[in-house]
Amino acid sequence: MTTRSLTLFFPVYNEVESIRPMTEKALRVLGAVYSDYEILIIDDGSSDGSQTIADELAAQYPQVRVIHHDGNKGYGQALRTGFMKASKDIVAYTDCDEPADLKLFVDAMTHIETHDMVIGYRLNRWEGVRRFAYSKIYNTLVRVLFGVRVRDINFSFKLIRREALRKLHLEAGSVFIDGELLAEAARHRLTIFQMPVNYQPRKFGTSHFNSVRAATYTFQEILAYHQRRRVDIRTERRFAQKIAH
């Protein structure tokens, strides 16, 4: 058993077929290694029965907690809720359809001893022409605008020290939450270990992100964050000038 405590959370929006096997596998994997851990299910306004299963799991297992959103707030808000409600030393998150084998989180924890963050990058990925095009544009924008230098920005396999997480200012409501997290990490000079991961295609249901509307919302949030960063930089420069005089 490791002495590190761990919060693993995942957002859920209409994942009725995935939520129970995902949670029970997480309990088996983490329970074999950690003496102090919790699993947070962030129910983002599900209406297909996922919310009921989540409550049943929390009643059955003391390590499981559920936070329900009043309606669908979006992926970014779901992750921000998870960050806010996490109570352990290390905060980790992934998606409910298990895009990476949960056992890899055990390996990732060995690297968090010497880094502020551990993030996974996909070795095998192909999700159609439109999603590929969106991804290329998105990754280029985040890298150029915010100095993010990682292989895979939006893969949902990340761990961060809770004390490092407290330094970051996160506002995104879209899938840009991953990019914003890494942009803030770059801004605060957090150390990041990149870990190769075999991507596991979704077994049940469909992705909620593969649409023009979702892409438009994401790019709007990138521009809004860029504007906020510019304002913050000007404010910091004025403050530094006042101190110098």
Explain how this protein is built.
The chain has helices at 19-31, 50-60, 75-85, 104-111, 129-146, 162-165, 176-187, 212-244, and strands at 6-12, 37-43, 64-68, 90-94, 117-122, 157-161, 192-197. Helix 5 packs parallel to helix 8. The longest helix has 33 residues, at 212-244. Strands 3-2-1-4-6-5-7 form a seven-stranded mixed sheet, with helices on both faces. The model has no long low-confidence stretch (mean pLDDT 90). The chain has 245 residues and is an alpha/beta fold. The radius of gyration is 18 Å and the shape is globular. It starts with 5 loop residues before the first strand and ends with a helix. Strand 2, helix 2 (50-60) and strand 3 (64-68) form a beta-alpha-beta unit.
Topology:
Layout: E1 6-12, H1 19-31, E2 37-43, H2 50-60, E3 64-68, H3 75-85, E4 90-94, H4 104-111, E5 117-122, H5 129-146, E6 157-161, H6 162-165, H7 176-187, E7 192-197, H8 212-244
Parallel strand pairs: 1-2, 1-4, 2-3, 5-7
Antiparallel strand pairs: 4-6, 5-6
Helix pairs in contact: 5-8
Brief synopsis:
Helices cover 45% and strands 17% of the residues. With 245 residues, the chain is an alpha/beta fold. Helix 5 (129-146) runs parallel beside helix 8.
